[in-house]
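JOB MANIFEST
job_type = single_chain_structure
chain_count = 1
residues = 479
[input]
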Amino acid sequence: MTGHPSSLVSRAADDVFAAFDVGRDEPGSRHRLAFEAFPVKFDSVLWLRGTGAQAVRHDDLGLLESLSEMNGVIVRTTLQLITPGILFVFGAAFVCAWLVEKKRNYLLLLAGACVLFALGATSQILGLPPGAGPNAIVSGALYTSAVIAAVEGVLVRSGKGLGPVIDMAILAGFVLLLAYFFYIDRSLIARVYIQNFGYGLLMLIAAGRLTALARGPYVDRALFWVLLLFGLHFFPRTLLTVGFSAPVDRTAFSNSMFWQALQLSLAVLGAGLALAILAAAVSDMIDDLRRERDLDLLTGILNRRGFQERVSAHLRKHGPSRAALALCDIDNFKSINDTLGHDVGDDVLGEVGRMLRNASRKRDIVGRLGGEEFAVFLPDTDEQEAVDYAERLRIAIEQNSFAVPDGARQVTASFGVGTLQPGDSWPSLYKRVDGRLYEAKRTGRNRTVSRTLSASADAPVAGSGYALPQLQSQDGARL
């Protein structure tokens, strides 16, 4: 913009009058505009008449700079409010996720963390409540509550929460330190380091308690590393941007490198952490749905679909490794249903499923393939060990007292056993072992048939091989 100073002021006045809807071309009229309405006060007033200025002072040229500064403040404040706005959105997303799966209470903690941090940032940016002391304490308490809620939410998801007593003690400690270094030994630099180093330490403690996530599914790994990075970044960012001398006033603080870097890091890493946690929550829900889909509710073990998927996944991952399959079929189960009723038959199925589940190792895959047929896939097991396992289960089932309306009933089961061969798929392995199970049923039931031997109720159990955990009967007696 070029021209005589009076022309500059006249153009600026046009802008101001337009903003306030004040006319300047009405014949014979005088309009007086008091610039005290603006944040920057002026020591002179423009009197305008017609199309020109009757009185102009050179210091009124500061109007242009003041208007520009005012616009800059508005823009800067608006940009600073973007981060709280994003956090409010994430908070709403966590609430929506909780409404879908209300048993996941950690989602409410994470929603609260987003809202509390957004309120803390808004309080600090807008200077609410007014006054340096109250604002420092209130915003600090909100920030601290947000970090504690976020840490607690992530830990509760893994069953390792700190608990409300420890959480309240941490919050009280932060607030007392902030109040001390404002009202007693006033030091802005101390408050900056207390908050930033304290928050970083809390997140590092959480990451330390969740190191198992680093070896879990990809979404858990992402959550762990984002949490660890978020915690670590507080230390170098604070040292490099604020050092050991704090800004002298509020304006200098809001324009400092520390404040700008803080806003950037919170926007990027905060959004990253919120996305990682949200993805982990969605993954948890999908896993629950998959487990419900693959679980046989009557017996508490996998159904046919879940069993086949897990065995096929094992074969794809490990190839022709040492493994065995044991198939189990309850003998004369139809007669149990016909004579005692389907409710008793369901109880028998549930008890056999419990025995199979309790007898299995953590890496074994146990399922009900349908009706009265069960299966156990045994990784790292040879044929003799698999036969030992099947025989011990067969004897345990035979010796168990199954409760029926008239007292107790003996139930027996037949087993077929086979080992994984090179080039085997799940269908080929199942077909081969199912043939041996059929052979066990055909040759008298209550026996185990494998490739090399057939063991029945009259044959001794091999004393070596698979170590079966101690089984219990329905009344708790050890077998």
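[summary]
Confidence is low (pLDDT under 50) at residues 8-13, 15-58, 458-479.
Residues 257-294 form the longest helix (38 residues).
exit_status = 0
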